[in-house]
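ok so I'm stuck.
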Amino acid sequence: MRKEVKAPGAGFAYPVAVITVRCDGKQNGMTASWLMPVSIAPIIYATSIGLTRYTHELMDKASSFGINLLSNGQAELSNLFGNTSGRKADKLSDPKVKLYEAKSIDCPMLEGCIANIECKKVGGHTYGDHTIFVGDALRTEADTEKRPLIYHSLKYYSVGKFLLDR
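replied:
not stuck anymore, here's the structure
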């Protein structure tokens, strides 16, 4: 059934990531699904963070950030990082969270992801109630055996049946 909707991204299916950042001795992680590749050469990514988020406060001052693309077995981590503010709790110290230090930037990264992308922040621009932060990918690790976690219509999914080579 079709109906008019006012929600941004209605009908979209998004990859789910945890954006990690460290600045001035503080660090945080936040679930984000508004992210995208921007350029192939050089490899550049962007993520959109709400102005009121604690992660935005840190990203505004930070020189780098991590994009941790969650695998289909990490939906609980998405909820942990998406439902609690870093102002109120240190989510990165939760016993369920397994971290390692990025190799090319000063930032914690999540273990077990389908991909981890270490980005040097190269810019940010505010549109409405979000800032799009842009980062030059300095280093990427990927696990080609894992499947991505997908977010669609307020639910989590895994990539399903193979359809067609392009």
